[in-house]
Design a protein that fits this description.
By secondary structure, this protein is of the alpha/beta class. It is built from eleven helices and ten strands. The chain binds adenosine-5'-triphosphate, magnesium ion and fe (iii) ion. Residues 23-308 form the Gcp-like domain.
Length: 337
């Protein structure tokens, strides 16, 4: 079964062809990072316009690289939420037009369920049930993946997402957008124990997260240093901040797996590319006898192969979207229809 996946929820215009939910035949990503960098973050209106400019050629290239025609595709899957409404609408409109014209089934996919499904692309043995730590630009969730299309959220952030905190701290220490990969890189030259930043716990919600505290602590630290005329070490601040976030993410994920008796943890979303998080989870999982998997960095951040992977499992389960499929900017995980 061949699925064409389309993704345009934020600042990547992407299309991919995936076979049987697991084998990537092509994975084309046109990133808008260069433009948004000028503004220090994603500008929604610019994102929508760029998606419109790129989407046709990205899809054409995905079909070409996979060496298939649109006729050979079994279904078209597209991200319909959550994300920026204008950006989502470009992908949804395009997918509907293609599916209608080529008489193909249309399958709307949840962007975060797609991030989770990215784990299927390189781990042929991974099947639900498993626990997934979702850490992306806009989401931080602990999710029990009960089946390919059944999810239960057991923990979430009360304020900033992990990736958002990375991006804000990066901006504050002058690393620019997008901050995650840059903090990851400079942290390698810094001391993760140089500054003690807080690790927030949420009373009464052992698997929930909060990252606004650590972000504020970094901003306060920077202000203090400036007032006292102390020159900061970008690398030490980055490494200490990263250490605090990694401690919390790894700690909660392991604790949840132990409590729920989960023997497998998958990691998903852009922050899953973070080298310190991967290393830390690996050490902790080895200690606890828990299997760990995460996607290659290119499948951690936004891409359409993950949308085709999730689309495949929805498709074989019989899910079909109508021609009235709409963008749903605040779509909830597990929500259908
Ligand atoms: P969402 O998926 O929640 O809608 P998004 O699509 O914008 O948000 P992703 O593409 O999943 O987010 O991930 C982007 C985020 O991942 C950014 O916040 C970025 O800083 C972060 N990120 C990417 N690489 C790394 C890394 N190596 N270390 C830490 N963070 C990273
Ligand atoms: Mg992005
Ligand atoms: Fe994403």
């Amino acid at each position: 079964v061949l699925i064409l996946g389309i993704e345009s929820s934020c600042d990547e215009t992407a299309a991919a062809v995936v076979k049987n939910g697991r084998e990537v035949l092509s994975n084309v990503i046109s990133s808008q990072i260069a433009i948004h960098t000028l503004y220090g973050g994603v500008v929604p209106e610019i994102a929508s316009r760029k998606h419109i400019e790129k989407i046709n050629q990205v899809i054409e290239q995905a079909l070409k690289e996979a060496d298939v025609t649109l006729e050979q595709i079994d279904a078209i899957s597209v991200t319909y939420g959550p994300g920026l409404v204008g950006a989502l609408l470009v992908g949804v409109g395009e997918a509907k037009a293609l599916a209608y014209a080529a008489h193909k089934p249309l399958v709307g996919v949840h962007h975060i369920e797609g991030h989770i499904a990215a784990n299927y692309l390189e781990h042929p043995d991974l099947e639900p049930p498993f626990l997934c730590l979702v850490v992306s630009g806009g989401h931080t969730h602990l999710v029990q993946v009960k089946a390919y299309d059944s999810f239960e959220i057991i923990g979430c952030t009360h304020d900033d997402a992990a990736g958002e905190a990375f991006d804000k701290v990066a901006r504050a220490i002058g690393l620019g957008y997008p901050g995650g990969p840059k903090i990851d890189k400079v942290s390698k030259e810094g001391n993760p124990h140089a500054i003690e930043f807080p690790r927030a716990k949420i009373a009464g919600a052992e698997f929930d997260f909060s990252f606004s505290g650590v972000k504020s602590a970094v901003l306060n630290y920077l202000n203090q240093c400036e007032m006292k005329g102390i020159k900061i070490s970008q690398a030490d601040v980055a490494a200490s901040f990263q250490q605090s976030v990694v401690d919390v993410l790894a700690g909660r994920a392991i604790a949840a797996a132990k409590k729920l008796g989960e023997k497998r943890i998958a990691v998903a979303g852009g922050v899953a590319a973070n080298s310190a998080l991967r290393q830390r989870l690996k050490e902790e999982c080895d200690k606890e006898g828990i299997a760990l998997c995460y996607p290659s960095p290119i499948y951690c951040t936004d891409n359409a192969a993950m949308i085709a992977a999730q689309g495949y499992y929805e498709y074989i389960a019989g899910t079909r979207s109508g021609w009235d499929l709409n963008a749903v900017p605040n779509l909830k995980i597990g929500q259908r229809g």
